[in-house]
Design brief:
The complex is a heterodimer. By secondary structure, chain A is α/β, with parallel strands linked by helices. Chain A folds into 2 domains: about 120 residues, Rossmann fold (3-Layer(aba) Sandwich); about 100 residues, Arc Repressor Mutant, subunit A (Orthogonal Bundle). In chain A, about 40% of the residues lie in helices and about 25% in strands. Chain B is α+β, with helices and mostly antiparallel strands. Chain B folds into 4 domains: about 240 residues, Rossmann fold (3-Layer(aba) Sandwich); about 130 residues, Beta-Lactamase; about 150 residues, Beta-Lactamase; about 170 residues, 2-Layer Sandwich (Heat Shock Protein 90). Chain B has a 6-stranded mixed β-sheet with strand order 6-7-8-3-9-10, with helices on both faces. Chain B has a 6-stranded antiparallel β-sheet with strand order 13-12-11-16-15-14. In chain B, strands 18-17-21-20-19 form a 5-stranded antiparallel β-sheet. In chain B, helix 10 runs antiparallel to helix 14 and helix 20 runs antiparallel to helix 22. The longest helix of chain B has about 60 residues. Chain B starts with a strand and ends with a helix. The chains are: A alpha/beta, B alpha+beta. The interface between A and B is large, with 36 and 48 residues.
Chain lengths: ~230, ~800
């Protein structure tokens, strides 16, 4: 997985940069580094990274704003790195479009696991299921092979994580999927307790898919989980 | 277009909006008025889908919308928030098209900027350089850009939240004219503003919020009056508002001055002389019980001065007699006339043989007397008397008009004054200054000796909140005023103005209903025996009006102060949060590095080469040192904040302390540090702590400047009891914001690698504990004024009061 994978590290502390870069390089990843927001945005365009490690506490720019600006420009996987452990900070980062949230200090295993999980979600593997690749939900069509979602032929732009969540809900359409199921299936092992991830991403999906006044597509079963409407 | 139905919103247990109903129709501009905290912003947040309502619903085109900003935006509603969400680091075009970069036509840079330019051009917004960074724009340009971004997707309803709150007049006008243009082009606009005049300029109607309720949904700006809106916003009645009274008086003056051209008494008199072929006439007017000659024709000088002021009595000559009897007095022969007896000689000298004195009356009252002098004896013809009576009627109306005009002008002057008062108080000058100006203009307008705003304290003393006096003498509230102020501040009988005479002065006092309840506005005039206590008829009413405007100003001041205090509290909480978050970052970053490097070395799946291994180990060591410094700093800071910083003092040789501090610098940097020490007296100080201060200052000078920067540490004695140490560099200098070490704790430095913010606060606290000071000193910089110079001044006694000069001298010797 590490081969041909480029990681953009946005971090202003040279030792943390060295630490992350050493551990990624030794495992075969390519790395790009930026200590400031403007360069980070330009590297996002020119360097075409597969995943971004974004430190929230940067000089001269609000990391949350940078996260939003990156998400507005690209659907790259974004892992926010922060010294703050509060749920609020985690939810705001996810709301700004982050795919994952990691607090300092972190172990090397955690760093690698989060990068791997994010890449698995955001970078499609070549072999997609051949059969039943088109799923229709009302006027929305989900094209699994092409990873496209359309409503009446118009593209609905979903980030890879949003797409993965919708795909899992659609795969077991009408069936209640627990938070833990969804976390395991979309984010991977080790994410079972991160229920905010599901909440934030369901909200993002609803905002993009549901139409004002129309009945909801994704049903919330409080404290249990979510299901996609049947039929 | 937009319908708000029964909307109720709460913040926790506090109700922010109750049962709001509001309709905005397509193409309208509706302004939302209300004082701070009235619920304007909450309502906007609800409409924008940013805040969930407790009850009620919001409909756009009769369809309910969910609490979701994106859904609201899709329905064609766009909000320009008061705190603009612009990305500082991006250029104009990127901000304008933020989130649309994915669209294929925007992929190329040239098309991206031309799209941005044409969007700005279509809105007629003068921002030609779309590559300019947002941080280089003025407040007005930012606001225009924010509006442009909101207009990008051509919303049908544009919500502007205080669009000009932080702008100057010119910039406000730019934003206003853009708003007007958008409205002309059919955009429906909901405007939230503090500026009532702006609402009247822009909006079709105004909805007023007070305490979370709509108190008026529909004040039309075409026929409404700003006072109405103010009254609705504040809940204060303004029926007697000076502005209204001023309007009323202006129209009265208009009516009076637009009548016949003014005919003065002199003109009437000379016309009468022509009609009668009489060359000598006079007219006296009644003034305070005496007859004063107001005009005359052909009067001999001697008689003129004798008749200038006459009593209304028989010894007042014919005018006096006519005034007394209020009937015409005809003296056919001055030699025999009883009334002429006191003036017979003057009459003989002037060749006056006979006279007629005709009273001038109006509305049954005597105004004055016209006297006609003849050169021959005899009685006048009947028609001659009729002619004089007719002219006396003219004179009466002229005199009445003069009196009225004089009075109106006086009233007008006072009301003009009050208008000035209001204007002074309406702009947000500090209240103390505003009161001074207002009271002074009020004094001028009332023609009073003194005007003062007095506060009565519970211990029955008075203090002055503002005063103005015709003389330069300091106004001192006299004891006898206390009783007057007491009675006016405690009166509840509906007569808010009290007139009385106190110690030779006429005094009017009006209660000012203020938050603390005991303020009085007092005006004094010199006492004049025989004159009414009230200097002119409108004075009490005008004083009352002025008191009411002062009340509004005081209330505004109170609410603004509360607002400022809340804002300061919020700011300090924000700063504290920012500090904690930065501190957490500063602590966790070295911890992350240590943990991560150690963890890396323990990884089993990779082999590290020797270079990496030794780099990791040396970084673990340096990060551990950084962490322990930080922890030591925090412990120091907490000792300082809880006032338990201990100094271990001894007589110190400052030269040795400086040497030791330099030796703490990294070996590679030692050559950049130059020492310049004169012989110094010993100082009663904690050697290690002073060394810590110097190490910190030297370290900052080295780390925050280019490698070529030189650092000079100099020390000299000042007098026999002080030592000054300076640490200066010729580097890039410091931003003014960090020059005060006491602020460094509140506003930690942006650089995550520094930790210098703590160091500076600690240094300052250490120097202060020694009775000295640590300041930035620009005067110590070279002629180029480059770099930074810190100046430490230490008293030789170390600020220890136990040390007498003798002890110091002994130690010195």
């Amino acid at each position: 997985m590490a081969e041909n994978t480029r990681v953009l590290i946005v971090e202003d502390d040279p030792n943390i940069v060295d630490l992350i870069r050493s551990n990624l390089t030794v495992r075969g990843f390519d790395t790009l580094v930026s200590a400031d927001g403007i360069r980070a945005l330009s590297l996002l365009e020119s360097g075409e990274p597969d995943v971004v490690l974004l430190d929230l506490m940067l000089p001269e720019i609000d990391g949350m704003e940078l996260c939003r600006a990156m998400r507005e420009r690209s659907s790259v996987g974004i892992i926010v790195v922060s010294a703050r452990r509060g749920e609020r900070d985690k939810v705001s980062a996810l709301n700004m479009g982050a795919d994952d949230y990691m607090t300092k200090p972190f172990s090397i295993e955690e760093l690698l696991a989060r990068i791997t999980a994010t890449l698995r979600r955001t970078r499609p593997v070549a072999a997609e299921p051949a059969a039943d690749t088109m799923i229709t939900i009302g006027d929305i069509v989900l094209d699994l092979a092409r990873r496209r979602v359309t409503r009446n032929g118009d593209d609905i732009h979903l980030t890879p994580t949003e797409f993965a969540l919708l795909r899992e809900l659609a795969a077991d359409r009408g069936k209640l999927l627990s938070h833990a199921d969804l976390l395991r299936r979309v984010w991977g092992a080790g994410y079972q307790t991160e229920t905010e991830y599901v909440r934030v991403y369901v909200r993002r999906l609803r905002a993009k898919l549901e139409v004002d006044g129309a009945p909801p597509l994704i049903i919330n079963q409080p404290r249990a989980g979510y299901r996609l409407v049947d039929g | 277009m937009l319908s708000v139905r029964g909307l109720t919103a709460d913040y926790g247990h506090r109700r922010a909006l109750s049962d709001i109903n509001l309709d905005v129709f397509a193409g309208e501009v509706v302004a939302l008025a209300g004082e701070n905290g009235a619920g304007k912003s909450t309502l906007v947040r609800c409409v924008a889908g940013d805040l969930a309502a407790t009850a009620g619903e919001i409909l756009i085109d009769n369809e309910r919308v969910r609490t979701d900003p994106a859904a609201v935006a899709r329905r064609g509603v766009s909000v320009v928030w008061q705190d603009l969400a612009l990305c500082e680091n991006l250029d104009v075009a990127s901000n304008l098209l933020l989130g649309r970069e994915q669209r294929s036509e925007l992929r190329s840079d040239a098309r991206f900027h031309s799209t941005a330019r044409s969007l700005l051009a279509s809105l007629d917004i003068p921002l030609p350089d779309t590559t300019a960074s947002v941080s280089s724009l003025s407040g007005g340009q930012r606001q225009l850009l924010a509006v442009a971004r909101a207009m990008r997707d051509r919303p049908r309803l544009l919500i502007l939240d205080e669009p000009t709150a932080s702008l100057g007049v010119f910039e406000s006008r730019q934003v206003e004219s853009l708003t007007r243009r958008l409205s002309d082009e059919g955009t429906t606009i909901l405007l939230i503003s503090h500026d009532i005049d702006q609402m009247f300029r822009l909006a079709d109607r105004i909805a007023v919020l007070r305490h979370g309720r709509i108190v008026a949904a529909d004040v039309p700006t075409a026929t409404g009056h700003p006072d109405e809106v103010v009254a609705l916003m504040s809940g204060q009645p303004v029926d007697t508002s000076p502005r209204r009274q001023l309007d009323r008086l202006h129209s009265l003056v208009g009516r009076l001055t637009s009548g016949d051209p003014e005919s003065s008494l002199a003109v009437i008199l000379s016309a009468l002389g022509t009609a009668l072929a009489a060359d000598r006439l006079s007219i006296h007017l009644l003034d305070e019980g005496r007859l004063r000659m107001t005009a005359s024709v052909g009067m001999p000088a001697a008689l003129h001065s004798a008749w200038f002021d006459l009593p209304c009595a028989v010894d007042g000559g014919p005018p006096g007699a006519a005034a007394l009897t209020q009937s015409t007095v005809i003296d056919a022969d001055v030699r025999e006339a009883h009334a002429w007896r006191p003036f017979r000689e003057l009459a003989e000298q002037a060749g006056i043989r006979s006279s007629w004195a005709v009273p001038v009356t109006a509305g049954g009252g005597l105004l004055g007397v016209i006297t006609v002098f003849r050169r021959n004896r005899g009685t006048p013809h009947r028609d001659e008397i009729d002619l004089v009576t007719l002219y006396a009627g003219y004179a009466a109306s002229a005199a009445e008009r003069d009196r009225l005009l004089g009075e109106v002008t006086a009233r007008n002057r006072v009301l003009e004054t009050i208008r000035v008062v209001l204007e002074e108080l309406a702009v947000s000058v500090p209240l103390a200054e505003g009161l001074g100006i207002a009271v002074n203009t009020l004094r001028g307008g009332l023609g009073a000796d003194t005007v003062a705003l007095l506060a009565r304290h519970p211990d029955a003393t008075l203090s002055c909140r503002g005063w103005a006096s015709a003389t330069a003498a300091e106004f001192s509230p006299r004891a006898d005023l206390v009783a007057a102020v007491d009675s006016v501040t405690t009166r509840r009988d509906g007569a808010p103005v009290l007139a009385l005479e106190v110690d030779g002065a006429r005094l009017l006092a009006s209660h000012v209903p203020a938050p603390d309840g005991s303020l009085a506005l007092v005006a004094t005039w010199p006492a004049e025996p025989g004159r009414a206590a009230v200097p002119f008829v409108d004075a009490p009413a005008l004083l009352e009006d002025a008191a009411r405007s002062l009340q509004l100003a005081l209330e505004r001041e109170t609410s603004e102060r509360a607002h400022r205090e809340a804002a300061a509290l919020r700011r300090s909480q924000d700063l504290q949060r920012a500090f904690l978050s930065r501190l957490s970052h500063e602590l966790r970053t070295p911890l992350t590095a240590i943990h991560g490097y150690a963890d890396s070395l323990l990884q089993t799946d990779v082999e590290w080469d020797d270079e990496s291994t030794s780099r990791f180990l040396s970084r673990i060591a340096s990060e551990s040192a950084r962490l322990s410094r930080l922890v030591a700093d925090l412990l120091d800071l907490s000792a300082i904040e809880s006032n338990i910083l201990r100094l271990h003092r001894d007589w110190c040789d400052i030269g040795l302390v400086i040497d030791a501090a330099r030796d703490c610098a990294p070996m590679s940097e030692i050559d950049r540090i130059k020492l310049d020490c004169e012989p110094l007296p010993a100082v009663w100080a904690d050697h290690d702590r002073i060394e810590q201060v110097l190490v910190n200052l030297i370290d900052n000078a080295i780390r925050h400047n280019p490698p070529t920067t030189m650092v000079i540490v100099a020390a000299r004695a000042v007098g026999s009891d002080h030592v000054v140490i300076t640490v200066s560099d010729d580097g890039v200098g410091m931003a003014g914001a960090t020059s005060d070490p006491s602020r460094a704790v509140d506003e930690p430095p942006r650089s995550a690698t520094s930790g210098a913010g703590l160091g500076l606060s600690i240094s300052r606290a250490i120097v202060v504990a020694h009775g000295g000071s640590l300041l930035l000193d620009a005067s110590e910089l070279g002629p180029a004024q480059r770099g930074t110079c810190w100046r430490i001044e230490l008293p030789v006694s170390g600020g220890d009061p136990a040390l007498t000069p003798a002890v110091v001298a002994a130690a010195d010797g």
